[in-house]
Specification:
By secondary structure, the protein is α+β, with helices and mostly antiparallel strands. The chain has five helices and seven strands, in the order ββββαααβαβαβ. The protein binds ligand L45E5XJ5 and 2C-methyl-D-erythritol 2,4-cyclodiphosphate (CDI).
Amino acid sequence: MTFRIGQGFDVHAFTDGDHVMLGGVRVDHDRGVDAHSDGDVVLHALCDAMLGALALGDIGRHFPPSDARWKDADSRTLLRHCDRLLRERGWRVGNADVTVICERPKVGPHAEAMREGIATDLGIGVDDVSVKATTSERLGFTGRGEGIAAQAVCLLVRS
Ligand SMILES: Nc1ccn([C@@H]2O[C@H](COP(=O)(O)O)[C@@H](O)[C@H]2O)c(=O)n1
Ligand SMILES: C[C@@]1(CO)OP(=O)(O)OP(=O)(O)OC[C@H]1O
């Protein structure tokens, strides 16, 4: 088999705080997110896409919320762990595409920094990583500003 495809989705509720972690980048905001780790929806969705591509389960299986090791964990650590799992099996991410869904914060000004960090962690080119954003036109939980969501797809190729 030459290719594998995976998709991932993650949500975190907003809570009190002054920043959110998105794609490994600290983004100043008037809310934080409720999470066991740093609550980075971009990296969690991407990890799930990578794991899903090889039918390796999900991040809750690999990094259980019941495990104190992942308390306040930097999600870049989780991403690099998932990358190792793929590479041990002879695969790497060919390209990945992530969409963040929220009214605020604005993601666009931070998208390049996210792409660069993700590309570094995955050992691939920045042109192989896409980070985009959309509002949900004020509809639903993201539209009401109750939480933030991200979805990701990735293609795996033989390393
Ligand atoms: N959190 C967000 C949401 C959107 N953007 C950028 O704004 C554009 C327009 O959003 P619509 O939901 O009205 O389509 C979108 O294409 C993004 O470029 C953003 O940066 N951060
Ligand atoms: C990342 C983990 C780590 O314990 O916890 P959370 O930060 O709460 O994030 P979630 O997206 O719910 O994924 C589950 C866990 O693997």
